[in-house]
Amino acid sequence: MKIGYILNTYPAPSQSFIRREMRALERRGIAVQRFAMRSFDGSLPDRSDQEEAAATDYVLAKGLFALLWALFLVGLQSPVRIYQALFLALKASRGSEAGLFKHLIYFLEAAYVTRRLGELQVDRMHAHFGTNATTVAMLASEMSGKPFSFTVHGPEEFDKPAAIALPLKLQKADFTVAISSYGRSQLCRLVDYRFWPRIRVVHCGIEPQHYDSARPMPVTRPVTMVNIGRFVEQKGQILLIEAMAEVARRGVDVRLVLVGDGPMRLPLERAIAHSGLGHRVELTGWLDEAGVRRAIDSAHALVLPSFAEGLPMVVMEAMVSARPVIATWVAGVPELMQEGRTGWLVPAGDAMALAEAITELATSPDDKLRRMGTTGRARVLMRHNIDTEAGKLAALFCQRPRTQSRAQRPRTQLV
User: Fold this and answer.
1) Are 14 and 144 found together in one domain?
2) Rounded CA gap, 80 and 85, in Å?
3) Which residues, listed in sequence order, are joined to residue 254 by a DSSP beta bridge?
4) Cα-trace Rg, the chain
5) Are residues 195 and 246 both part of a single domain?
6) Position 413 in a domain
7) Whole-number pLDDT of residue 364
8) N or C: where does the chain have the smaller number of CB atoms within 10 Å of the terminal CB?
9) 412 pLDDT exceeds 70?
């Protein structure tokens, strides 16, 4: 079997989970052809990402003429399907935040993908994120007759389902993957209950062979925490600085390393300076995968104060590294973490609760932190082995594609 993976911007530093999934499928003997609409405009320090970029077919880089030529060739071969796909693009654009013009671009991108699917003898498509990449996969499916599926991560897709035509995509897809039970529940809200069996849970995962043992927790004090992620509002780093200031006022000495970058970097730097935390907080910028692992290994714990999440890979990476985690009680996080056993879960947006958890972490004996880390490692290895999860996905790919007449299809409805 050959799968065409349809992606928007790929690879990117925060998308290692997609690479792991594709490579796990390849280890199972499934060929994966990578299609991305565009390349990442920043640097790719990780060698694995550089290898992925070299193996990816970048659609928009081919230029307008190549896309129009693909449309012409596909139209000659399947004129009826082209018109059906155009109608579907117009339907998806109604009420969409992308608008009609962008959907016409997606239509052209889908024509190029359709042509390449035929040339490469690709059997089916899978997209990640329910946004424009899935739109392209849906339109290419209409043009080619090949089934498509997609993985929804959240939280962005759940914030604006109508604006990205998510109910329509759920209806058209052969199946849809959610990365947590919480995510599946949110997708079930968008469609008639008869579609629910097509919404399946397949977790993101870690590669156990890269974590055959965990580095010992640092024996030095003060406690060091690491936070990893884009500097944006929903990740809550500003609230974390507020909590750190409260912990400092209590006379508790804690260090924090912030790994990442983004539009909130300047406000973060100002908040750190205003709170007098310059000697306690370090900003590293983006690190490659090995650098992220070193940052986790050098810390006593991970802290994730997010307001919204899917099921964060950094939590899995910290837990498999035998580090306890402080995280907010949002989305799929409580499905992985266990309060009091693998770390601390706090209400999102509550700086005082976050400060309490940090204080408890900083004053906990080393053997308690090691016990939490060991419990967390065992839980991740049991629930998030990427080869096991890729096996679930491969089984879905190998099932007979769904066939259903229009008359039999239940109506899509927003709740």
Assistant:
1) yes
2) 9
3) 223
4) 23
5) no
6) no
7) 96
8) C
9) no
Rounded-to-integer distance, Cα 206 and Cα 317, Å: 7
Residues 6+ apart with CB under 8 A from 373: 214, 217, 319, 321, 322, 323, 324
Both 370 and 393 in one domain: the answer is: no
- Evaluate if residue 368 carries a pLDDT over 50: yes
Q: Say whether both 191 and 327 belong to one domain.
A: no
Identify the domain containing residue 304 by its residue range.
Answer: 209-383
Q: Which of 187, 212, 85 is nearest to 136 (CA)?
A: 85
Q: Are residues 193 and 224 in the same domain?
A: no
Asked if 370 and 222 sit in the same domain, the reply is yes
Do 168 and 229 reside in the same domain of the chain? no
**Least confidently predicted of 341-345, 391-395, 410-414:** 410-414
CATH number for position 329: 3.40.50.2000
Number of CB atoms found within 10 A of residue 152's CB: 28
The single residue listed with the structure tokens 């349809």 is 6
Based on the structure, what is the number of domains in the chain?
Answer: 2
| 320 contacts 380 by C-beta, under 8 angstroms | yes
* 415 domain-assigned: no
Q: What is the pLDDT of residues 133-190, one digit of tens each?
A: 999 999 999 999 999 999 999 898 999 999 999 999 999 999 999 999 999 999 999 9
Q: Per-residue pLDDT tens for 290-318?
A: 899 999 999 999 999 999 998 999 999 99
On whether both 96 and 218 belong to a single domain, the answer is: no
pTM, rounded to two decimals: 0.89
Q: Is the peptide bond before 222 cis (omega within 30 degrees of 0)?
A: yes
